[in-house]
Amino acid sequence: MQMNVNERKRIAHFTGPLLGAMVLGLSLPSAWAGTGPLQAAVQQGSHIFAADTFKGRGRTCQSCHLAGGKTQGEAPNGAKIPSLTNAAAIFPRFNPQRKRVVTLEDQIEACIAGGIGGRPLKYGGRKMAALVSYLTSLSHGQPIDMGGKPK
Q1: Helix 37-51 / helix 5-13 crossing angle, nearest 10 deg
Q2: CA distances from residue 3 to 7, 14, 37, 74 in whole angstroms, order as listed
């Protein structure tokens, strides 16, 4: 299979973050191993999750969501938080505090603004797409349970 120039550029764009994720020792579910634009986005999302502070207070997603979100985490106040292994499978969901239905992207933004104290990402932008891709990879194989409970 031959790739066109744009496909090669997209893959090349993700090479740095892919290498960064490998250096950090992060691993992804075997279903997402390989190459290609989707897998590259998952790898970039994994790197962002572990390393990006979003110009905030020096925290990353992984500061609270331990082991890349694959295990129970801990909020800055010490409260236990569930893993993210089914996060993509339970959104959209109704948020009683906000009194509205929120998407996975909305939840990512709330964590960046609140927990990390960082700057919002552009909806539809590469960083947001990469984070959503990574979180969705963690939910691979989970049954869709819109409005369900985090595990």
Answers
A1: 20
A2: 6, 16, 11, 43
CA distance 51 to 60: 6
pTM: 0.76
The residue with tokens 């090669």 is: 8
pLDDT in tens, 90-116: 999 999 999 999 999 999 999 999 989
Q: Tell me, what's the pLDDT at 60?
A: 97
Q: Which residues contact 112 (CB under 8 A, 6 or more apart)?
A: 54, 56, 118, 119, 120, 121
CATH of domain 41-138: 1.10.760.10
Q: For the chain, give every domain's residue range.
A: 41-138
CA 21, chain centre distance (Å): 13
